Hints:
Layout: E1 5-8, E2 16-25, E3 33-40, E4 43-48, H1 50-54, E5 59-61, E6 69-72, E7 74-75, E8 90-91, E9 97-98, E10 104-105, H2 111-123, E11 132-137, H3 148-151, E12 160-164, E13 169-172, H4 174-179, E14 191-193, E15 199-204, H5 205-209, H6 213-216, H7 225-237, E16 240-248, H8 254-263, E17 271-277, H9 286-299, E18 305-313, H10 343-355, E19 360-364, H11 367-383, E20 392-395, H12 401-410, E21 413-416, H13 419-432, H14 434-439, H15 444-450, E22 454-456, H16 467-476, H17 493-499, H18 502-507, E23 525-528, E24 545-550, E25 553-556
Parallel strand pairs: 2-5, 2-6, 7-16, 8-11, 11-12, 16-17, 17-18, 18-19, 19-20, 20-21, 21-22
Antiparallel strand pairs: 1-25, 2-3, 3-4, 6-23, 9-10, 12-13, 13-15, 14-15, 23-24, 24-25
Amino acid sequence: MSTLMCTPADPPEARIAIYPARLIRTLDPAVPTAEALAVRDGRVLAVGTVEELRGYGDHVVDERYAEKVLVPGFVEAHSHAGSGGMWRMTYLGRFDRRSPDGRLWTGCASVPEVLTRLRGAEAALDDPDRTLVAWGLDPIYYPDTVEARDLDEVSTTRPICVRHANGHLMVVNSEALRRCGIDSSTTVEGVVRDSSGRPTGELREFAAMALVSPLTGGGGLAPDPASLRGLAQDAVNTGTTTVTDLGSRAVLDPERRRAYLDEAGPDLGVRLDVFHFGAGFGGPAPAEAAAQLAELRTSASDPWLRFGNVKLMLDGSIQGFTARLREPGYLGGEPNGLWTTSPEEFEEALLAYHRQGLLVHTHCNGDEASEVFISALERVLRRAPRWDHRHTVTHSQMTTPDQYRRMAALGMGANIFANHIWAWGDQHVELTVGPDRARRMNAAATALAAGVPVALHSDTPVTPLGPLSSMKHAVTRETPSGRVLGGTERLTPEQALRAVTLGPAVLLHRDGEIGSLEPGKWADAAILDADPLDTDPHGLPEIRVSGTMVGGLHRASALES
């Protein structure tokens, strides 16, 4: 993996550095564009013309960005720190992807290609007892699902565990089932069975997947130094200056928390906002956890690393048929999805974290999950009134217009998964919810019209980190087959740019310090070769990203060469 390159943007002999650029888009309504940026002590001093900025005192003019376009550093409000380490496992996704070091990994177009790649990975393992772990599988693209009998074609003696791309399902082979004691007598919800009652190898949601955790080592998303550095390089490659670890089980464990404390800072090259996984996964009860998080927010947070936010989860994945939908439900009479946290347990946790003054982002893919969150917050606010909480529905894929109106009244936000329109839009039309509701998915324009603050996200590693790609998908709403799903829900390029910069900063309660290039805010910028507002939306992902400036320090993309 390439080493993150970090060079001071402020030459040591001058406190003020002036950076001319071809264009600077600030997202500050008072000064929307500028020709130069002045930085002092890691913060924006001013924007304007070079001559205007010379008047602020002793300075140097640094021409490194003279031919570039600067926009506020992209903010990713739903990512996972462990995504930087997923590449240590075998990738089986449908589409080509690049790892943080710039290597291109080709997608698997069929189940035979999946099995061929697994055979190659299996043959490369020296230890015959070591579990083969892979990720990114997406059976919804193929005519048939992948089950234990398919993985048994790779090995009947080595356990094999393969995560689906959505992170909510897994398929394992017969040896993995045997070693973990999963059989016809297993009663855990989410263990899929055939007509005779025998497990097929498919495990839906976290309780079922936990049965094979002794083989997977926790699933691959745990924070460790290498994963954090990988995520940081991925961020630089995509112009992202603030990322989240949205759902960490390590926050309240002093030993496991050490990875964040040791790695975060100027050398990591990205700001990191860590959310505690707040219910349904063991650990301290919400009331106790809330008190610990409030203390950590004060004692262990700084501009590079922040603790004190909370991730809750209600349902699963739409394309995995584990999200919770209101009527008319799934196509073809597929049963409704699973609650990952019961509505009763969820409301108790929400109240505990809310009372402690913490920010809560809740995973809600289906509209029934959104309804539970909204209704629970209505009751919580009656018991514990609090202004400007900014609790957020994350994914918000099936949220309806009436729900958005209630969310606006309650002061909630929506972090919307626009990438989903591209990644699974065709499948939603044909297999999961049908064309009518597929057109209504990820309704960012409806949310904005209702007055709900909006962000766009990638949920990496579910889809690749890439705010420019998220902009494209929100503006075009096109699927791989060329369908346009819900053209009235398209964002304008200006709205989409805000939704990957200032919008997520608002939902993270950080819009006073990041998200736009305004005096006093951190000097965080994406360094681009083209103006995203003067580019055909289909070409947004192709804009070359040279790197980032974070707190006045320059980071080089691993793709620059």
